[in-house]
Amino acid sequence: MTQLHSILLILHIVLGSAALILFWVPIYTQKGQLNHKKFGTYYKNVMYGVAASGAVMAIMVLWMPLVIKHQYAQAENAEQIASNLRIFWSFLLYLALLSFTSTRQGYAVLQAKDDRAQLRTWDYIVPLALLFIGGVALTASGAMRGHTLHIAFGLLGTFVGLGSLRYVLAKNMPKKRYILEHIGSMMGSGIGAYTAFLAFGGRQLLDGAGSYQIIFWIAPGVIGSVASYLLCKKYGKVFQIA
Fold first, then answer.
1. 22 and 46 in contact (C-beta within 8 Å)?
2. pLDDT digit string (tens) for 20-34?
3. In 10 A of CB 159, how many CB atoms?
4. How far out from the chain centre does Cα 176 lie?
5. Are 120 and 128 in contact (CB under 8 A)?
6. What is the count of structural domains for the chain?
7. Which tens digit of pLDDT belongs to each residue from 63-79?
8. Domain span at residue 125?
9. How many CB atoms are closer than 10 A to CB 6?
10. 3-state secondary structure at position 6
């Protein structure tokens, strides 16, 4: 099991590194052009791999924390360590869900365009509902434990899940609104990718930052949200979207 976890970790790092680079190509290529669509598809497929590998690793640790992280098995406070591992990897599992749903939403709305009925299927709606419910639970858990990071991303996931569900299920939606939904969802996907990088890999480099480490974790969400707002505002005017 530990060997499988290590292989998944390597795959996750490789795919994650590719996603961090591919994320920028569609942003700097003209919307609707071949390169924008081609690299957007590359990014989507890579992010699915990132989310899947991250989710499987998280589930493995949640299932058997002291087997996967065997270096802690003989510690005097092994049970407490196991509990802490489950809390941390539950958070990473939620980030995997956030990355997957945001990426899928960004891609699916372009395929459906104004015909949102195509998205109203159980297999599409359930992950969005889980993102919303999980966000509420993560926020509540973070508030009880005093985990600012969990509160921040619990709220982010709650609003992303709720916004996505509203877009899919709303009776009426302005024409071409899918363009703004695409931009917002892909920016959300990028937030998940960069946060996961800092949380899963980069955190080893940030250990010396102490309590200031949380700034590096939250920065992608803050910067990405502002960028998403500005881009949506820009293209809302370009395409005259209500």
1. yes
2. 899 888 877 766 666
3. 15
4. 25
5. no
6. 1
7. 999 999 888 888 889 89
8. 2-238
9. 12
10. helix
